[in-house]
């Protein structure tokens, strides 16, 4: 038992650490006022209890010096009213009207990133609840016919009545009592009391209602509730008799808001984000909790916990857990618990476990965690991610990998060994589902780890006929992952009339592809997109026949004086030259075959659009954490350029090439 309690405390502490990260987004405050009015003779408190703990004649109320009504600031979100009076003849009463103001101050996130926009949720749902709603009355009457007691023996009568009521906007309670006593002959006596309560002691009424409000940053929204209580006391007595009346009324109020995930958290800027584990089986835990706010009293939220549900929509896969199967109250906090089918124990939060990660890229991403108490109260927007470099995706016949080595002759790439599915990273699996399978017909493989290569296109030529293709395969390597510490840099090109200045090309003048001193820096899924499109461009060039890297190509009549694998005539009409394998790029020193692949890859990247990032659910991806700035990519000029220092999500240079140029 001791060990279990220690574990419980540690888990709760961990949850509170998460709740503490509320981004200073929402502040909830309370202030209230109450007006106490008396009628007839000012009552006393007696054993019934004083209004807000202070006697009618105290400096707090000061209603015994002629004042009949007073308004004060109250100490909490509750109401207490007690009144007592007794004697021969009296008529007394008190009314207490409490106004409860709950103030919500919202601070809108201020993150501003060029090229990136987001719309934070500015609606808040909350639960208003009342408890301890209770009214009680007592009426006492006594009469004695005793010569020693009465100057007029043989006669005495008394009657007393009391009524009390308390009203909230949800539930109310009322009670009334009356008692009479009389005697006419000595030594008779009569008397007693009548006590009633609503509901019967020790029960009390309680209730709840859900509300929604729209928030404006920096402007408090005030939600107002009212509680009213009234007590009326009447009595009369004659002869040797006496009457007494007592009334009591109480009600307590508070609010409950979702706190985990934070209902005003903004996943678009890195808040409310959750990641599946990198293990097999894969697990995911999302904290889910709500906090009760009450001022001046301590609520027992168990009755609300029984009605509370936390759930995720769209749902997440799980095999042997029951996420959010129950909610428990820990002090003033409602916490979701899940049943772990393996251990049979309850764990805090919404807990999921699956042998592998979900099968589709669309299974990750935007979700809502709902807080419901017999109906929706509020929700939090969240995002769910996969660990990019882990390898716990489902097995698939469509995703393969091979370690390769370079060779000679007509097969420049040789598959060394197959890389099993459990060694292929998640980014390769899910980026293929999100983008690759839509633009490539297949033969795209994971190539393992290298030190410098991002992608590689491997043509396989016929043994009998040079430059006749049997197949073309594309390999993407581990460095394409969104997580390495370096970025993918794409050189940019335009067309310009100029003289070539690389080796063997001096004094050749014409309109040539020309590097601009500006590059494009890419992160996240765009690394994958541009490298895949770059290699697909190589594949198209090989299939179209003007690019051949078969060592036997010159024997087949393929014209390639600069030995760059490109047909010389084709080069001359496409902005290149056959004078050198690096004929045009004197800035990045890219071979001509790479230049045209970069141009087409850049064009396909732009065709894919600047919204592909919306499918990036990898850790280190473009939707994970705080967005990169500028967004979603960065055009940047070289330090020795005329535009040095330029950094934007739009290019500085105009008329950049996005496809092959043909004279």
Description of the molecule:
This protein is mainly beta. The chain has three domains: 2-8 and 259-385, no CATH class; 28-111 and 122-210 and 220-257, no CATH class; 451-648, no CATH class. Helices cover 12% and strands 42% of the residues. It contains six helices and 30 strands. Strands 3, 5, 8, 9, 11, 14, 16, 17 and 18 form a nine-stranded antiparallel beta sheet that branches. A six-stranded antiparallel beta sheet has the order 2-1-4-10-6-7, with no helix packed on it. A four-stranded mixed beta sheet has the order 12-21-20-15, with no helix packed on it. Helix 3 (426-439) crosses helix 4 (525-544) and helix 4 crosses helix 6 (592-608).
How would you sum up this structure in a few lines?
The protein folds into three domains: 2-8 and 259-385, no CATH class; 28-111 and 122-210 and 220-257, no CATH class; 451-648, no CATH class. Helices cover 12% and strands 42% of the residues. The protein has helices at 2-19, 302-305, 426-439, 525-544, 568-572, 592-608, and strands at 26-40, 69-73, 78-87, 89-106, 123-144, 156-167, 172-183, 189-198, 205-214, 221-239, 241-260, 273-275, 282-286, 289-293, 308-313, 321-330, 333-340, 345-348, 350-354, 365-373, 376-385, 401-406, 413-419, 444-446, 455-461, 469-476, 488-499, 509-522, 634-637, 647-648.
